[in-house]
Design a protein that fits this description.
Blueprint: E1 7-12, H1 15-25, E2 30-34, E3 37-42, E4 45-51, H2 52-58, E5 75-79, H3 83-92, E6 97-103, E7 108-114, E8 120-126
Parallel strand pairs: 1-4, 5-8
Antiparallel strand pairs: 2-3, 3-4, 6-7, 7-8
């Protein structure tokens, strides 16, 4: 039975550019670097970036589809202590946000950014009402 996610895997076109973004701009620590992959420690799990070429060798040509264009179907959501503070810090590191912090009807304060290849990430916290 599946009970947890141990690693997130993002297949990317430009491995070096994305690795620099996750390491330098987001401040994640490199856990391992091997041919075609770079893994970062992300809490209790790994975030692994994998080049399209390596992904095709690992699975099968055509399955990965590096030339296909698709709408975003995945958003990574990360809870933080203060979305506004994290937004300011990440923006100062050059992270490009597609949506500044806003509070939704459920009281969740959310800001959204994308990595160099358009993968979307949300940072958020729930606003405590007095």
């Amino acid at each position: 039975m599946i009970t947890s996610v141990d690693a997130l895997l993002l297949i990317v076109k430009d491995l070096d550019r994305c690795a620099a973004f996750y390491g330098d701009q987001l401040g994640l620590k490199v856990k391992a670097r091997e041919t075609g992959t770079v893994s970062f420690q992300l809490g209790l799990q790994d975030l692994t970036l994998m080049s399209f070429d390596y992904a095709e060798k690992r699975s099968s040509a055509g399955l990965v589809g590096p030339t296909k264009s698709a709408a975003h179907r995945t958003v990574f959501s990360v809870f933080v202590d203060d979305a506004d503070k994290e937004y300011t810090s990440l923006k100062a590191n050059g992270v490009k946000f597609v949506r500044p912090p806003t509070t939704n009807a459920a009281g969740q304060r959310i800001a959204t950014f994308s990595d160099p290849e358009g993968n979307l990430w949300e940072i958020s916290h729930f606003v405590v009402s007095a």
